[in-house]
Every structure is written in C-alpha cells, then in structure tokens.
Amino acid sequence: MLPYLSVVVSARNERKMLPGLIDQLLEQNYPAELYEILIVDGVSTDGTGDLVRRRYNNRRVRVRVLDNPKRSVAAGRNAGIRAASGEAVVFLSGRCTIPSTNLLTDTAAILETTGAGCLCRPQPLVAHAETHMGEAIARARSTRIGRGPVAPEMAGYVDPPGFAGTYRRRVFEEVGLFDESFDACAGLDFNERVRKAGIRAYCDPRLAVHEQPPQKLRSLLVEMFRHGRGASHWMRKYPECSSLAEIAPLTMLLAVLLAMFAWSQLPALTAAIITAPVAVFPIAVLLASMQIGSSHGFRSAWRAPLVFVTIYLGQGIGLLYEYAFPAGTGKPRKVAPVTTVSAATESLSEANRAA
User: Fold this and answer.
1) In the chain, what are the domain boundaries?
2) 289: pLDDT strictly greater than 70
3) pTM, whole model, 2 decimals?
C-alpha cells in the first residue's frame, strides 16, 4: 500500500525558480491523490506566495501555501510538519530541481523496503547557475576545501548527516520538531536527536535533488555567516560532536588576524616564523583553483580564490559572533499524530487492501 506523502518546500522570494520545481513535482509518477505540496513562504516580497496560489489552484494534486512569519528554515519546516497530512514528509528547498520523475515513487519504495525512519540524499550544487560567479561558487564548494554538503554515493544505512530529506511522521512524534533557536544547522541538531533515539537512516542516490548555488559573493557570505553561527550553536549544545573540521574557518580567521598583528608589531623574521603555518591556506586555495581551471576553464579559476576566502571568512565570523553572542536553546515540541486523511486517500487505501 502506497503511503500518503507531504512535500514541504521552504521558499522566500523564489518567484523565478519555484514554478519550475512545482511543475516537476506535479509531473511525478505517483498517484495524484496520494501526495500534497505545501509551499512555506517566508514573507516573500516578490509575490511568490500569490503566484503559487493563482497558478496552482484546482490542480489534481493539492497545492497549498503556508505562511512562515519567522522566516527561518526551522520555523518553515515546523509549519509544514504541523500542516502535513502525510505518513512521511519530504523536505525540499525552493532553489532546487528534481532530476527524476520517480523521486516520490522511489521514496515510497525505499521507505517500505528498508524500514528506515528517515531517508538521506545527495544534494549537489548543480542546478542552473544564473551568473558566472554562481558557477564558480558551485565548483569551489564541490572541492575538498570548499566545505560543501557531502553524502555517500552508495546506497546504505548511515548516521543521518546534516539534513535528511524525508522523515516518517512518527519521527516527529518521537523526537519533536526542529529547534527554532537555530538560524541555520537546525538539521544537524534534529538529526543528532534522531541518532540518539536509535532511529535508522538510509541514503540512496536515487533520491538526489540538485540545489542552485548562491549567485553572488554577498549572498554566499551571508549564507556562510549563518552556517557558522549555526555550527557554533550546535557545538555548544553537543560538545561531544565538536571537531577540528567544524572550527577550521574560525582557526583560519584568527590565524590571519594574528599574522596581521605580527607583521605590524614584530620584526620581519619573527613575524615570518609565527605566520608560516598560515601559508598552508593560500597554497591549498591555489591548488584547488588550478584544479577547477583545468576542468572548467579560466572563467571559474580566477573567481575561485574569492569564493574560498568568502566561505572561510563568512563561517569564521559566524562562529566567532555566535560564541560572543550565543542564541538561546529551544525546547522543540512534539507533533501530534495524523488522525484524519482525505476521503480519496481512504478509498484508495481500501482498494489497495482489497487487492
């Protein structure tokens, strides 16, 4: 028996890209009466919510727009969970594309065959970039030092990474909702609770979606700043999960500040000795940029160093800011189980049982 699925899409000012994603969802090879699409609008100023209401009214698949006055991703996901009618919730961002028309069919099949409570997926930054800088950002983030999202390429059971794409509703009933005290990295917090609850997670490349990278350095800087704050908040909440990799941007930022101080206040030889380790970063950036250039040309290669610096600067400042001005720790509430479904779903379920 196929499960009823709720697809929750977080969006803010995505009037340009969101309709394409909704069209891809409507073209899925999954019974129209067995899924719904919930667009959670974070107070868009470009008419995103109104566009969706007008264009996707009275479709075979139910498309609804929910308001997210808090604007944060965690609050948006929670709004979607509360409104969802599905046995499982599939989360997507408004800046992604779906390469397969079988995403929902595969989701249902993998949930059935694995018994996993959550499903993880690759989310490479390969959706169409509208600017040359966007292309460079995507390529830099995919390198080892680019600090991009990483997911296993092979199917199998995993510890849930930063964010799993699909959760059974019982997961929210057991561990609660997303912690809204996180501006970013709420998925890290949620999945740590999932892991501690002993809920199994499964990753499968068939569930991959393609994310669009930021299009400008300024947007990337803001995103990295938010991620740095979230990572700092997460490490403070779970000290046992802290690692050198997480604090690398802050370490690099402090090393650069130390180098600037040394060269301004100390003899040249002493300053050179103190700051020699800092040279590792520009060498790594140069090598990574050369690798990007050999694969994608000079247009991306010369922009790559700017991208790498922006990534580490943004995350480093975010980590430092959150350390100095920590956010409070929320107490996520649990969600009530679904007790009602649509008449169409009930009738189809009866037919499936009879078959």
Assistant:
1) 5-129+150-213+336-354, 221-324
2) yes
3) 0.88
